[in-house]
Amino acid sequence: MSAIAVQHFLRRAKDFEYSMKLCNESSLTAEVEFPATGVSRSNECLQSAALLGIHAAISYADALRTALGDTELSAEDHQKAAGRLRQVLVDKKVEDLKGVQRFSALVGKKSAIAYGKDRTNDNDMKMIVESSQRFSAWINQIGKQLKVEGWENVTNEA
Length: 158
What we know:
There is one protein chain. The chain is mainly alpha-helical and 158 residues long. Helices cover 66% and strands 3% of the residues. The protein has helices spanning 3-29, 45-67, 78-91, 98-108, 110-115, 122-145; strands at 32-33, 40-41. A two-stranded antiparallel ribbon has the order 1-2. The chain is globular, with a radius of gyration of 16 Å.
């Protein structure tokens, strides 16, 4: 395990998570008017919040996988990352694997949020943000439980 690599992924996760929270808060207060239509929407930042939440989850998973000796991080297939996360946790005899399923669901929505032609509905984006926050709490608990170097200083507050 490279403590430097773990810290890199943890810092990235916290940055994404902090930005997600800013976008989510903005989505509740900002009002954007689309010039072509004159239609106002109050939550255009929500899509960014959802995507940032997904990226935060990916970085948290990369940090834990790196800490537990997994060297095969892949930017191409995040579903594969979910399977590898499950495996490193099973190898460490972690019983609480509920976060792996949440992670798999989050990365399964990445392409639709980032590249989809149609806008994801607001309720689904809010659920992604909430799921990302729950994943963050879970993986931080696991990191501390496994006494991963540097994880003891990670808080749930971004």
